[in-house]
Every structure is written in structure tokens, then in C-alpha cells.
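Sequence and fold
=================
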Amino acid sequence: MRLDGSVTEAISIDIWSDIACPWCYIGKRNLEKGLEAVSADEDAPQVNITFHSFELSPDTPVDFDGDEVDFLSGHKGMPRDQVEQMLTHVTGVAENAGLEYRFDLLQHTNTVKAHELLHFAKQQGVQHEMEERLMSAYFTEGKHVGRIDDLVELAAEVGLNPDDTRDALVSSRHLADVRQDQAQAQAYGIQGVPFFVIDGQYGISGAQPPTAFENVLRDLWSKRGETGAEAAPEEATA
């Protein structure tokens, strides 16, 4: 609500991500820090956030035989020592964002069922809580996030009914929603994640610093009376 009492439509933030993407969790934290900063503004932007599905490695088996170094060296064709250096770098960036990554515990897996769970959680009004729980479980706790039994346990932790959750996952009820998200990403030309589409006008690619989000949100909120373009988003410069 504006200071003059008028109601202003919230800014939409649509996030394409994969819960197995280390930069997505970092980007999520940086967005949260940006939102926290603008929340202190006298006329603070109001936002609605929706997470969308993107599979980085859809051909990954549910139970991958090996660690993260094995997966990345095989998937990307990189030498093991180079992969280890890359993971050390990512761990440091994550630490700066307040996250303690444990690649030594991480269980690489297929994430399609996790994405189905996120759509089920969205339907139940707890998508944000489920996204956070899945990313934390995967990157910091070494939990398996590809098997239905494990996903049901994590879902129960955010208040979802275990029986209803299991039914949704076993039936693949939300697989069509996952595919629809992926089709939209393709239509937008999104080739990597995280990718943030803000108000259908700005596209922010990668785990940008909190200030990148602050600047875009403040700019959009100040121009809220203007009609946003309906075309595919242009990538914003951070």
C-alpha cells in the first residue's frame, strides 16, 4: 500500500531453479537479503515470489554411484582436481551468503520428483518452506532428495500431510506442471539457473549480489503506475 493509501499491485518474482544447483541456493539467499534491505524503505516494495522447475541434469539416475566430484568430472569432462577447486570456490561463495555447503556428504540424484513436490507444496501454500527445506537437506545435510520416501519425510517437516504427499508423488500428478515450467523457460530462452524474472520485465541471471535485486525492485516500485511490457523479459545488468 502506498503512503497515500492507494493499493498497488505487488511485484512478481518468478524464479527458475533446480534444488541441485549450488548457485540457485546462493541466489535465493542473496534475493532474501535484497528483500530484507528494501523492506526497511519508507515505501517498501511488495512482492510475490514463485519458484519454477528447471532440471540441470534430467538424465541423472535417482541413485548415482559416486560423489559430487565423480558426477561433475564425468558430466562435464573436467579433471578431478579442477572439479575439486571449483567446489572449494563455490563453498566459499556459499559461506559468504551464510550457507555451509557439504559436498563431501552430498548425494547426487535426479530432481524431477523434488520438483513435483514443490508444485504440490505450492498448491498447499508452503512452496517457499519446501524449497528451503529441500535445498538445505541437499547441500548442507547430505540427505537424499530423489526418492519418494525421503521426500515425504521432508514434506512432513514443513507441515504437509505424508499420505497426500506420497499420493501426489506416486501418481506423478504434478509432472505436467514441471514440464510447463520447463517449456516456459525454453520460451524465455533461459539456458541456465538461477534465473529471476521480475515483473515480466527484467531478467536477472545467476547468483547476483543483493544490491542487484534492491536496485531493480526499487526502480520498478517507483514506476509501478506504468504498464509493464508483456514480451519476454530482457536481461537486466546487475
The first strand starts at residue 11 and ends at 17. Residues 125 and 211 are 28 Å apart (CA to CA).
